[in-house]
């Protein structure tokens, strides 16, 4: 048997090759989906922080309409004179009435029923928030000051948890893929033990034999992984179209940036490199023990 024939026999795994490609395709499909979830939720967290970190609402509750208007005017005057304030304005009271109508009904919005005045404030920097709150309370000690970030802290915590969970899933799948590669490499060594002995007798080294295994596993991983990743990316595109059709503000920030798409597209290459090194390490380790 020639060295070339032995190498061809070693690389011809038949069904095992196809099974390896299918496994890698499934692994990459799941990895891309989990990675997309993690990247999208991290992106949503950044957008949420940017939108809410410098925003607060001032609520002025006063039964006397004239006193309430004076307090609102005094607060707005002080806020607009402060350089740390990007924007400050009173919420339209007709809009407040429409927001309260589902809970109070038309009968509950009687003219004699005092409606609190609401002031939306955008602070230029989040560091200035404590000073702005102190300024508001110096003008109106009874006013309620609510940070938007505080309201949505539980939502942000949930999003961050989902992002870390997705990252954990990616690591678990990567670990499982590594173990599959190790098992495939050792199974190939056991199956083709006679062929490997012939190669050794013909002068092939352990490194050359390892190259044959890592080349075969790299091809299977890249082929199967590319198909699995492509299927996952197409599914993500379809899902993005569905989200755009819904148009909900809650999920408006859950989007992938161009850099995120590029990172997901590189996952098959990363898994191929990982599988290649794992196969090389496993084969050299087993062959070294047999000598």
Short structural summary:
The chain has helices at 3-11, 15-52, 65-81, 93-108, 129-139, 148-151, 153-191, 193-201, 206-246, 258-265, 267-290; strands at 55-60, 85-90, 117-123, 144-147. The chain has 291 residues and is of the alpha+beta class. The chain has 2 domains: 3-49 and 154-290, no CATH class; 62-142, no CATH class.
Please provide a written account of the structure.
With 291 residues, this protein is an alpha+beta fold. The protein folds into two domains: 3-49 and 154-290, no CATH class; 62-142, no CATH class. The chain is 74% helix and 8% strand. It contains eleven helices and four strands; from the N terminus they run H-H-E-H-E-H-E-H-E-H-H-H-H-H-H. The protein has helices at residues 3-11, 15-52, 65-81, 93-108, 129-139, 148-151, 153-191, 193-201, 206-246, 258-265, 267-290, and strands at 55-60, 85-90, 117-123, 144-147. Strands 2-3-1-4 form a four-stranded antiparallel sheet. Helix 9 packs antiparallel against helix 11. The two termini are 22 Å apart. Mean pLDDT is 77; it is low at 5-14.
